[in-house]
Design goal:
The complex is a heterodimer of chains A (about 325) and B (about 270). Chain A is α/β, with parallel strands linked by helices. In chain A, about 30% of the residues lie in helices and about 20% in strands. Chain A is built from nine helices and 18 strands. In chain A, the strands form five sheets. Chain A has an eight-stranded parallel β-barrel with strand order 3-4-7-8-11-12-17-18, surrounded by seven helices. A four-stranded antiparallel β-sheet of chain A has the order 5-6-16-13, with no helix packed on it. In chain A, strands 1-2 form a two-stranded antiparallel ribbon. The longest helix of chain A is centred in the last third of the chain and has 16 residues. Chain B is of the alpha/beta class. Chain B has three domains: about 90 residues, Translation factors (Elongation Factor Tu (Ef-tu), domain 3, Beta Barrel); about 110 residues, Nucleotide-binding domain of ferredoxin-NADP reductase (FNR) module (Rossmann fold); about 45 residues. Chain B contains six helices and 16 strands. A seven-stranded antiparallel β-sheet of chain B has the order 4-3-7-1-2-6-5. In chain B, strands 11-10-9-8-12-13-16 form a seven-stranded mixed β-sheet, sandwiched between helices. A two-stranded antiparallel sheet of chain B has the order 14-15. In chain B, strand 9, helix 4 and strand 10 form a beta-alpha-beta unit. The chains are: A alpha/beta (about 325), B alpha/beta (about 270). Chains A and B meet through strand 5, strand 6 and helix 8 of A and strand 14 of B. Bound molecules: flavin-adenine dinucleotide, flavin mononucleotide and FE2/S2 (inorganic) cluster. The site of flavin-adenine dinucleotide has 24 residues of chain B, from strand 4, strand 6, helix 2 and helix 3.
Chain lengths: ~325, ~270
């Protein structure tokens, strides 16, 4: 069997595989929800199987048209978006997008969003039986319609409620995606874990706005938008560092990742895996390049296992 | 069709008139596939600010040397940085992106209407039409004669064109849409292509519908990915199938849309 021998030889000398709360990832580099469509859009640039996972566009129960334009605006080293969760709804996701990706051997994580706790619960139940789904990421940075539009993710009581409801409806690994628009991120993290999160992902976008000085009006039709890109990286790294030290579940870190150095920063801060988001727009093959660069880095440094890096920046006071 | 990223060698970069630049680079895989109406997405810097790529219509393609040319106007920080790139440097190009102008086989006499820098993607279209022996007339509009884009190429191709300038420094004094109104009866155009500022496109739509002439418009919207993933470039269009207003992605469903399909001011 010369082929198998060859394969064994080519097998990396280092371990890149990690476990994200019950989701086995071939490597720690994933792509962030909403920045990679349903994966297909990037097939010409990335071999999707090479990624740790593809986290697909946020899915709601019913189709959503999204916000009126303009939906995006560039800001210093970043961008604001107010897409408004445009998506074809969970049924289209299950019948079209999921089988397509599954047929290509991709590790798929869904991302769910709702207006009410009941919607989240229904989404979890609908996705629970999908064998091709490795896990569910719960986007709690959504307005709770029954509570005057206050974001689920900004109130500990609502975080508990929504995560509990999702947990009750699925046995799939649950990654709860925290909102950074809070005073105490550690508190939200603890509540999410208590309510049943198997992993946490952070950070979602930071709430921001831009004003057109000519028109003297907000640029985005939605007025406010979510800030992403390199501009938010220091905030994201800080939050990952704070949360990772306080909770016992693995963390998926993201926010402005554009380079190997950025990936390392998140791992060192305590993330078990990372997501490339806005960077995909700038360099469509960035995620795959980072997988290769991370592997080369470990080899060059003689680090046998990527997990050795996780939280290594904590120093003596860490755990 | 395969979209790719090329680090393209710049072989020509000239300021034609103040703030208007012609940029030609070697990108053989993009050149080979490029269709009229498509665009390229350029990174203006390797640094992280400005972060996003900038979209530009394909202005010309030279298959022999595998080059692609864009014609752009400096309007902000990204285009200003782009204008600083020199010949023999490289530029990071993603393309070819978007759909293309259709060329119906029944078409007899096409009119191409371009306002300002909006003429850029239409020049390549005019060339392809001329090469396919379709009768075509190009109507160019600009604020003043110096800013009329693409005349040299059109002359070389032997394509008929007429001009309108706001200040009357050349051709008709007034808007290019007035030129279209004057020519439409005389020339019996049966297809209209247009690209330019929104008020111009609204007017072209009006004229086309009054005269019952089909056609296509090329639109602009702010973009991040350019490949249909971010949903940032939404424009409202009336779905022909059921007359419903839905959001289309300018980067992949467009930038070319049928006249009447686009819902302006929405
Ligand atoms: C499909 C398409 C084809 C285009 N073809 C051409 C062309 O051939 N020649 C040309 O000169 N211009 C063209 N444009 C417009 C060009 O992309 C913008 O002028 C350019 O992005 C401005 O960048 P800036 O940094 O200088 O301006 P800034 O205003 O500083 O840019 C800030 C942000 O807004 C975006 N933006 C600003 N104006 C526009 C616009 N009109 N359309 C889309 N995004 C914009 C930028 O991309 C950037 O993300 C085209 C746009 C699209 C969508
Ligand atoms: C255009 C766009 C759309 C997004 N859509 C979603 C979404 O549907 N669900 C979600 O949980 N996060 C969404 N996000 C947030 C990203 O997944 C990510 O958390 C954030 O952008 C920070 O990472 P980055 O700076 O690398 O982009 C979106 C971000 C962008 C820029
Ligand atoms: S620019 Fe991203 S979807 Fe069109």
């Amino acid at each position: 069997m010369p082929d198998r021998k060859k394969k064994e030889k080519e097998r990396p000398a280092v371990n890149l595989a990690v476990d994200l709360g019950g989701i086995p990832l071939r490597n720690p580099v994933t792509v962030a929800s909403g920045t990679f469509g349903y994966g297909r859009e990037y097939e010409e640039f990335v071999d999707l199987k090479r990624l740790g996972a593809v986290i697909v566009k946020g899915t709601t129960l019913e189709p959503r048209a999204g916000n009126p334009p303009p939906r995006i605006v560039e800001t210093p080293a970043g961008m604001l978006n107010a897409i408004g969760l445009e998506n074809p709804g969970v049924e289209a996701f299950v019948s079209e997008h999921l089988p397509y990706l599954a047929g290509r051997g991709v590790t798929i994580i869904a991302n769910i969003a709702g207006d009410t706790v009941e919607e989240y619960a229904a989404l979890a139940a609908r996705l629970d039986g999908q064998p091709d789904l490795a896990g569910i990421e719960v986007n709690i940075s959504c307005p709770n319609v029954k509570r005057g539009g206050m974001q689920f993710g900004t109130d500990p009581g609502m975080v508990r409620e929504v995560v509990t409801a999702v947990r009750e409806n699925t046995g799939k690994p649950l990654v709860v995606k925290l909102s950074p628009n809070v005073t105490d991120i550690v508190q939200m993290a603890r509540v999410a874990v208590e309510a049943g999160a198997d992993a946490l992902s952070l950070i979602n976008t930071l709430l921001g706005m831009a004003i057109d000085v000519e028109k003297q009006r907000p640029v985005l039709a939605n007025v406010f938008g979510g800030l992403s890109g390199p501009a938010i990286k220091p905030v994201a790294v800080r939050m990952v560092y704070q949360v990772a030290r306080e909770v016992d579940v693995p963390i998926l870190g993201m926010g402005g990742i554009m380079s190997l150095g950025d990936v390392l920063e998140f791992l060192l801060a305590g993330a078990t895996a990372v997501s490339v988001g806005t960077g995909n727009f700038v360099e469509p093959h960035l995620s795959q390049r980072l997988v290769g660069e991370l592997e080369s880095y470990l080899e060059a440094r003689g680090i046998a296992d990527v997990r050795e890096l996780v939280g290594a920046a904590w120093g003596r006071n860490g755990r | 069709m395969r979209k790719i990223v090329e680090h393209a060698l710049i072989i020509r970069h000239r300021e034609i008139v103040p703030t208007y630049f012609e940029l030609e680079f070697i990108a053989p895989d993009i050149a080979r596939q490029a269709l009229p109406g498509q665009f390229v997405h350029l990174r203006v810097t390797r640094s992280l600010d400005p972060l996003l790529r900038r979209p530009f219509g394909i202005y010309n393609v030279e298959q022999k040397i595998g080059s692609v040319t864009v014609f752009y106007r400096v309007v902000g920080r990204g285009t200003a940085m782009l204008s600083d790139l020199h010949t023999a440097e490289t530029v990071d190009v993603l393309g070819p992106l978007g759909n293309t102008f259709s060329i119906p086989s029944t078409m007899q006499r096409a009119v191409v209407v371009g306002g300002g820098v909006g003429i850029a993607p239409l020049v390549y279209l005019a060339r392809v039409l001329a090469e396919r022996k379709v009768e075509v007339m190009v109507l160019l509009g600009a604020s003043t004669a110096g800013f009329l884009v693409g005349r040299d190429i059109l002359k070389r191709l032997g394509v008929d064109y007429m001009v309108a300038t706001d200040d009357g420094s050349e051709g008709l004094k007034g808007h290019v849409t007035e030129l279209l109104e004057r020519m439409i009866d005389r020339k019996r155009f049966d297809y209209i292509y247009a690209c330019g500022p929104e008020p111009m496109m609204v007017k072209v739509t009006e004229i086309a519908q009054q005269n019952g002439i089909p056609g296509e418009l090329s639109l602009e919207e702010h973009m991040a990915c350019g490949i249909g993933a971010c949903l940032g470039c939404a424009k409202k269009v009336r779905r022909p199938a059921d007359g419903q207003d839905v959001y289309a992605k300018v980067c992949t469903d467009g930038p070319v849309f049928r006249i009447g399909e686009v819902v302006f001011n929405a």
